[in-house]
Amino acid sequence: MQQVYDVIVIGGGPGGVGAAIESKVLGLEKILVIEKGDNHSQTIRKFYKDNKRVDKDYQGQEVEIKGNVQFLDGTKESTLDYFDELIDNEEIDIAFNTEVEKIEKRDGMFFVTTANAGYTAKNVIIAIGRMGKPNKPSYKIPLSIRQRVNYNLEKCTQAEKIVVVGGGDSAVEYAVYLSNTNNVTLNYRRTEFPRINDINRQDLKDAIGYEKLRPRLGCNILSLENQDGLVKVNYDDGYSVVYDRAIYAIGGTTPVEFLRKCGVELDENKQPIIDDNFETKSAGLYIVGDLAVDSGGSIAIALNHAFKAVTHMLKG
Ligand SMILES: Cc1cc2nc3c(=O)[nH]c(=O)nc-3n(C[C@H](O)[C@H](O)[C@H](O)COP(=O)(O)OP(=O)(O)OC[C@H]3O[C@@H](n4cnc5c(N)ncnc54)[C@H](O)[C@@H]3O)c2cc1C
Questions:
Q1: CATH of domain 143-248
Q2: Exposure pattern of 197-217 as b/e (b: 16+ CB <10 Å)?
Q3: Above pLDDT 70, what percent of the chain?
Q4: Whose CA is nearest to atom 14 of ligand 1?
Q5: Buried b / exposed e across 30-57, counting CB within 10 Å, b at 16+?
Q6: Is the pLDDT of residue 283 over 80?
Q7: Which of these, 5, 10, 6, 3, lies nearest to 36 by C-alpha position?
Q8: 123 in the Ramachandran plot: left (φ > 0), alpha (ψ -120 to 50) or beta?
């Protein structure tokens, strides 16, 4: 007979790990996390630079942790270590390198399908975030320069001329960090950065003040072209500038097709419909973390979602 899980958690980022820990601590036994990467927390691993400061109150949002995961300020490495420790201590079962393709509900049970297997659960928590598909600009990126147009810092080397595009904490952190070893422009369509936290605001002020970084604010990019194998950026102020690399840090997209295949109802803006307990219209199916907010998610927010969803699930 196939094992019936009390809860299957899809996605092993902060929301998913948090949901699994809360499920265990609050008394559930048969818990499985399914993660498409080869380790937990793929967004943190791929998009955070090494030694990145990790702020609990990210994007200036103060969050009081409600549940059992006592997440504090730290670094990329200390955050990953902390999640490792939680997973080990609570003996959380995680299926790695396993991507969920769809979920079906029949007779009150959920059937979770991956490429190679099927799982059955009484409840499912979706915590797959948005960074599986980072937001791309609306204009075309010529194929010949795609290697030079990136969404994280993996390909950056030193002494490159780089434009970082975006106005949130991640764009500012990327730009300030790169400015230590590269020639960096920070381009944002607005003239101010209303969403960034105080530390990043000060870092940005210092980097501009010491002329380590060039701000190009209140200005949009109209198009990209290939110029001699480099990235030519055409701005709407009439100027064009050639860079070795462009990095877009403009958030991620909602996995609409995936949510449809999971039977999640979407609103007119193609966002999942969930109630205050993060339950979808399908009883027992929850969405937590970045996917549960329009924008501005954070690790602490994802952990609080997980606690609330699991608490509600246990009452059901
Ligand atoms: C550059 C950057 C810097 C940031 N800095 C901070 C910070 O300092 N402090 C802070 O609080 N927040 C920060 N954030 C935001 C924070 O990382 C997110 O809010 C948080 O990771 C959201 O957690 P999540 O669990 O919802 O999603 P994610 O962390 O995105 O995790 C989703 C997981 O689901 C997996 N997955 C996706 N699809 C499937 C599938 N079909 N099947 C199985 N698994 C799947 C992914 O591989 C991934 O591991 C930052 C974000 C970025 C991009």
A1: 3.50.50.60
A2: bebbeebbeebbeeebbbbbe
A3: 100
A4: 298
A5: ebbbbbbbeebbbbbeebbbeebebbbe
A6: yes
A7: 10
A8: beta
Structure tokens at 197: 């936290």
Give this prediction's pTM: 0.93
Average pLDDT over residues 300-308: 98
Do the domains spanning 4-133+252-315 and 143-248 agree at the CATH topology level? yes
Domain ranges in the chain are 4-133+252-315, 143-248
CA of 230 to the centre of ligand 1 (A): 31
Residues with CB under 6 A from ligand 1: 10-16, 34-37, 41-44, 47-48, 54-55, 58, 99-100, 127-129, 131-132, 170, 258, 289-290, 297-300, 302
Mean pLDDT, the chain, rounded, equals 96
Residue 56 and residue 71 in contact, taking contact as beta carbons nearer than 8 Å: yes
> What are the pLDDT digits (tens) for 200-214?
999 999 999 999 999
**CATH number of this structure's domain 4-133+252-315:** 3.50.50.60
Q: Say how many Å lie between the CA of residue 289 and the centre of ligand 1.
A: 8
